[in-house]
Write a structure and sequence with these properties.
By secondary structure, the chain is mostly beta strands. It is built from two helices and ten strands; from the N terminus they run ββββββααββββ. The longest helix is centred in the middle third of the chain and has 10 residues.
Length: about 150
Amino acid sequence: MAFSGLPTDSFQAVTGVLFSLTVDGTDIGYFNKVSGLSIDITPVETTATKDGTSYMKVNVPGRMSYGDIEFGRGLSTDKTLEEWVDTVATGKVADARKNGSIDVIDTGTGQPMATFEFQNGWPSRWSGPSLSASADETAIESMTLVVEAITRTA
């Protein structure tokens, strides 16, 4: 993708957002926090020749890896995340690998402002809330999703 000049109105950042998770076409729900959407490319140092006589070191793209995606939300009665983790825990990893998408939703308009698609994701961690009857806090559940690829599609 070539640089297209100075930012336009479409570059404006939106501060009030929620995140919607869809897995294999099924809406899983909304999350208050998503982190780890990343792609890392390891540089590999090699040598190149110039005019067949001089050598120089250059870096070329090497192995590509994707970050683990962490989700957080208030605990609800829905047990979809725990059931997905149980699929992995019972050894059915092939069944647990799912494709899906994460929509960044502008809370002002209710419309998606960005979409990230992932391939072959499966939950590697789920944690329930810290429980305290005297605490006046929202009970939070979190999940870590391991993926084989991430692409921003919108």
